[in-house]
Design goal:
By secondary structure, the protein is an alpha+beta fold. It has four helices and seven strands; from the N terminus they run ααββββαβαββ. The longest helix is centred in the N-terminal third of the chain and has 23 residues.
């Protein structure tokens, strides 16, 4: 026999043997491939609920040792560290007033976002400054001269998008600050 005939014969024999070979494991069960479906609306709701519980747990752990901690209806946790009796509330200031905030904003891992010793005090006009709404709410709860510490959940800070590269997505923000009325230098 020549080489081409031997190859033809081997291929033919292999083709004839193939059906008997594929059927030799008929008693083995192969599972069906799982059907891939898209998530349902309730899956997204459950995911968000679990995420909110995880963030609440994280914030609870951070504030567990704080005395006289207050939680707002929007999820901000704060503690008044020092206050001046009878001081005017920020909420009662006339429109256009500017606050001077001696501050430190940081992530829960200790990375500092901004600090007044390095960056200077923050000039803050309630209702007008372009910081997230949680800062407006927190400073609105203060009186002039108050020192506060607070934890802002992502929804009240920079949210799901963060503020790259300094503030990651869904960042919980820790704040230490003193609130004063801005006074122009003489």
């Amino acid at each position: 026999m020549t080489l081409p005939r031997i190859l033809w014969f081997a291929c033919a024999l292999g083709v004839l043997m193939l059906p008997s070979c594929t059927g030799c494991h008929q008693d083995e069960w192969l599972p069906d491939r799982p059907v891939q479906t898209s998530p349902k609306p309730q899956d997204f709701v459950e995911f968000q609920r679990q995420r909110a519980l995880a963030i609440d747990s994280l914030i609870n752990a951070q504030t567990a040792t704080w005395d006289k901690v207050t939680r707002t209806g929007t999820g901000i946790w704060y503690q008044r560290l020092d206050s001046i009796p009878g001081a005017q509330s920020v909420e009662s200031l006339q429109e256009g007033s500017v606050l001077e905030i001696h501050h430190r904003f940081e992530l829960l891992d200790g990375r500092i976002i901004t600090d007044w010793t390095a960056d200077g005090p923050l000039a803050f006009e309630p209702g007008s400054t372009d910081l997230p709404s949680g800062f407006h709410e927190l400073f609105g709860l203060a009186h002039l001269g108050d020192s506060l510490r607070a934890i802002l959940p992502p929804i009240r800070a920079w949210g799901m998008s963060g503020l790259p590269p300094d503030i990651p997505q869904e960042a919980v923000i820790a704040i230490h600050c003193r609130v004063d009325l801005y006074r122009r230098p003489a």
